[in-house]
Amino acid sequence: MASKEQGNDLLTLKTIAETLNQSQDLNEMLTTVLERLLEVTGLAAGWIFLSENKGDYICAADCHLPPALKSDNKKPMKEGGCWCIDKYWSGKLTGAVNIMECKRLEDAVTLSLGDTKDITHHATVPLKAGKETFGLLNVASPGKIHFNVEELALLESVAYQIGTAIKRMKLYEAHQKRAVDFAKLDVATRQLKKLNNIATFSQAAADYIKAAFQFDDVTVYIKDNGRLSNKKSQDDSSDPETHFTFAAKADREKSVVLTERQNRFIAALPLNNGEKVIGVLVISTSASRQVSEEILKALADHLSLAMENAKLHKMRQELSVLEERNRLARDLHDSVSQTLFSLSLTTKGAKNLSGNDAQLEAALEGIQQMAHTALSEMRTLIWQLRPPGLEEGVVTALNKYGRNLGLIVHTRMDGVASLPEKTEETIWRIGQECLNNVLKHAKTDEAEVTLAMTGKKATLTVKDNGTGFFPEDTAGSIGLASMKERAKAAGGEFKVISKIGKGTEVTVTLPVKGGFDEN
Predict the structure, then answer these.
(1) Does some domain include residue 308?
(2) Alpha carbons within 13 A on the beta-carbon side of 430
(3) Half-sphere exposure of 189 (CA within 13 A, CB side)
(4) Do residues 345 and 444 share a domain?
């Protein structure tokens, strides 16, 4: 007799195994295997609950439910708690057991929902693979109030087979979703590479990412002078305050922030350039559309590169304009200005040779006056063609330049006076290179710029509290050599003080012809 029962059990397991291998759709597989299980065991009804999180479950499959449990579109199977679910969530359900009374059936009787077909009890067994659990398998028959040890053991073996199949299918689905998400990532990154306008970068990048992944809300923040800004005409996210809160946390902690609440997935990822945070990407969408942290980090890396590329594009444009302005200024100074100056001198000399011819002398006076006026206007034009920003002073210009790099620049001026044009441009160029070095090498986002104008000297000092370096190890540094050559060409002095872990201080002192009193 025992041999016959053992043979039946093996047949049941074989039948279940064959059924599990016939489908790649989870719900279809669970329904089919439940039907076959009831068929080979002779049981009357069954249902399967799947639950990934405590407090959340679905009836993924059912077969031959009594009318009472089918009422109102199977509402009794979709809501409310019961003893088997509670035991599963509490971790107390580790194997197949008898449920002495089914709360769902009791409630159906109490509420007069329909015929229960004399089903009052059921067996329940967790669906698991190794230590991972997925839900519950419940089976019942009219009048059956107890399942013996052999029956429970068989159900446990079947449940293990089902759990293993669920895990296999979830891994397959995850693999498929990963492939789809990487395809979406490719679409997004191709679009991001096209962005070269930093002024519209936030809005355009958010739109591309949102469209590629079908996310509900996307916000791209750019860090400017230590503050996060999304630079949109308007923040069209459904919850801008939540987005900014998560962005600030990701920026502050320099790490990914992920959360899932009220069936919504929210992620905030810092955008990094080396160890420096240059912005934050915030995504919020329905839980069903969330993507893996792996995909999100890859997206953030591509977004960081695109943002830096847009900033560099702007700097290249500004440099191109600056070079053209400088060329025009040189050409005007070397040609037109000199010609006007010569005309003024020639006219002055001609006046001395005019004798007593009052009419000729008046004409020459008019020509000289026009030449003088034109020369003054030309000098003003050349002054206006200086590097952008210097109209407000070199210290203000360096502050703005540092902010565009993403640095926090603290400025100070000692003395108030106008610098000669060439001196100012030398200070501007050396200051730019100093701030570039802070960004690239100092591993800090703060710098201090001081300009002291006293007596016949102008002294620029740029300090940072970064990593520092050994000055003797920088003999081949093009940047330092360039700054030193600029200072030397202007007749000045250049000095660098730096210590590992103590930061760096660059000082350039330039002579001012005539001193500041005369200028």
Answers:
(1) no
(2) 35
(3) 16
(4) no
Give me the domain span that covers residue 26: 2-174
pLDDT one-digit tens code per residue, 32-79: 889 888 988 899 999 999 998 888 899 999 999 999 999 999 999 998
Q: What is the pLDDT of residue 115?
A: 93
Torsion of CA 432, 435, 440, 445, to 10 degrees: -150
Chosen domain end from 291, 326, 352: 291
CA atoms of 66 and 85, how far apart (whole Å): 20
pLDDT value of position 354: 63
- The predicted-structure confidence for 446-487, as pLDDT tens digits, reads as follows 999 999 988 789 999 999 999 988 877 665 566 788 888 889
Mean pLDDT, range 242-264, rounded to an integer: 89
Q: How many domains does the chain have?
A: 4
Residue 512 maps to which CATH number?
Answer: 3.30.565.10
DSSP string, 425-446: HHHHHHHHHHHHHIIIII--SE
Give the model confidence (pLDDT) of 192-211 as tens digits: 999 989 889 999 999 999 99
Amino acid at 485: E
Q: Residue 174, class by beta-carbon neighbours within 10 Å (0-12 exposed, 13-18 middle, 19+ buried)?
A: exposed
In the numeric block, which tokens belong to residue 311? 């900033």
Q: Is residue 303 part of a domain?
A: no
State pTM to two decimals.
0.58
Sign of CA dihedral 122, 123, 128, 131: positive
Using alpha carbons only, give the angle 378, 319, 493 rounded to the nearest 5 degrees: 80
Taking the C-alpha atoms of residue 385 and residue 380, their distance in angstroms, rounded to an integer, is 9
